[in-house]
């Protein structure tokens, strides 16, 4: 490991256990039947976020800059020697496509998630969900073509039964993903992200607050209580349009329906050459502060700088922001490296001009990569 932080296994030092006092009793998943491994992941992320942050990359091991489908490969590993601690995948291919395509997608996803679990990494799941009412429009909102679907998916809606069928498919898939130890692989499920914008069909301009909250609550309750999915942690992540805690919570479904609060923010971190780190830090602080009050996990669920033209972005922008205000964030995830595009990538690959700065980011004791992690799926681990 690059940092002498953790001693795995037994002996030598005292075993760290988690408090069961009143203050700590809130720090548990909203699913009372969550698997032991899912509970351990939740509590270990809480503990680690006090002094560290896990680094994540979307689709890191599925494909990268100029390659796809190679075993045990990621651009981050090629550069640093370690996979990211958090690997992002997407359930976008589990509906709205021909059944044979869906089955092939499931097999690829199952292998990817299980491999991450077996290596000791963490999986987070986005859901770029095809509009069930107007499937031809995909997950983006298309004016004059897309239908405002949220009202049709909630109980009483015209497509409610179809939505339940989709959720059953998602849930049965989740219950099929097991590691070599025979245990279900925990996942941080992050549906309906960036809902405060208008680019997705579930966005704020296309449904009322009550409709969105109803959709969120039904989604969680159906997966958890009807389909009996017990290896999910549920993450709530708007885009960065808010300025206050009240703004942030405007469509929040309630503490009993959320395990993790997060934010997606590219705009304040260099998109189109614009930087507003003061605003970006303040928005992260709102998330972190609320999580601490509510006993939730917090995360920087998406960010990044496309093509990374700023070669010191990793330390002078991202790391600087993360270390400010003594925030507690479980992970930060940057977006994907496209296979074909020469410019659509968010993590360095060998030879990229930001590699030297990324290695400083990697070496900082605050950041954790996969090889730095303790056993995230056990309730006890040791610290030097």
TrEMBL record:
InterPro entries: GH, GH26_dom, Glyco_hydro_26, MANB/E
Superkingdom assignment: Bacteria
Domain GH26: 36-371
Signal peptide: 1-22
Entry-linked Gene3D superfamilies: Glycosidases (3.20.20.80)
Example GO BP: substituted mannan metabolic process
Active site: 194 (proton donor), 302 (nucleophile)
PANTHER family per UniProt: GH26 DOMAIN-CONTAINING PROTEIN-RELATED, MANNAN ENDO-1,4-BETA-MANNOSIDASE E-RELATED
Family note: Belongs to the glycosyl hydrolase 26 family.
Protein name, per record: Beta-mannosidase
């Amino acid at each position: 490991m690059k940092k002498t932080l953790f001693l795995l296994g037994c002996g030598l030092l005292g075993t760290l256990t988690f408090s069961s006092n009143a203050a700590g009793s809130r720090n548990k998943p909203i699913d009372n039947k969550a698997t032991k491994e899912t509970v351990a992941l939740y509590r270990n992320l809480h503990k680690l976020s006090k002094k560290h942050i896990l680094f994540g990359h979307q689709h890191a091991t599925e494909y990268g800059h100029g390659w796809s489908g190679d075993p045990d490969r990621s651009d981050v590993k090629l550069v640093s020697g370690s996979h990211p601690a958090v690997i992002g995948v997407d359930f976008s291919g589990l509906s709205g496509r021909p059944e044979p395509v869906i089955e092939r997608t499931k097999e690829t996803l199952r292998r990817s998630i299980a491999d991450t679990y077996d290596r000791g990494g963490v999986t987070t799941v986005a859901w770029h969900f095809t509009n069930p009412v107007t499937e031809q429009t995909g997950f983006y909102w298309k004016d004059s073509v897309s239908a405002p679907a949220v009202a049709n998916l909630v109980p009483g809606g015209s497509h409610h039964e179809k939505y339940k069928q989709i959720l059953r498919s998602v849930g049965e898939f989740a219950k099929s993903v097991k590691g070599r130890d025979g245990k279900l692989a925990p996942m941080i499920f992050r549906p309906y992200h960036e809902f405060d914008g208008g680019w997705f069909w579930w966005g704020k301009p296309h449904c009322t607050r009550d409709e969105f909250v109803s959709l969120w609550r039904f989604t969680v309750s159906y997966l958890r209580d009807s389909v009996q999915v017990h290896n999910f942690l549920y993450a709530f992540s708007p885009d960065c349009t808010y300025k206050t805690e009240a703004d942030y919570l405007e469509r929040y479904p309630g503490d009993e329906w959320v395990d993790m609060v997060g934010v997606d923010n590219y705009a304040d971190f260099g998109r189109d050459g614009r930087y507003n780190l003061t605003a970006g830090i303040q928005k992260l602080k709102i998330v972190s502060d609320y999580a601490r009050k509510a006993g939730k996990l917090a995360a920087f669920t998406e960010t990044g700088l496309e093509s990374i033209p700023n070669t010191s972005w990793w330390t002078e922008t991202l790391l600087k922001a993360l270390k400010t205000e003594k925030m507690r964030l479980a992970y930060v995830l940057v977006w994907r490296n496209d296979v074909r595009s020469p410019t659509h990538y968010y993590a360095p690959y060998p030879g990229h001009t930001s590699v030297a700065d990324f290695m400083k980011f990697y070496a900082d004791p605050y950041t954790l990569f996969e090889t730095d992690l303790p056993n995230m799926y056990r309730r006890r681990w040791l610290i030097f």
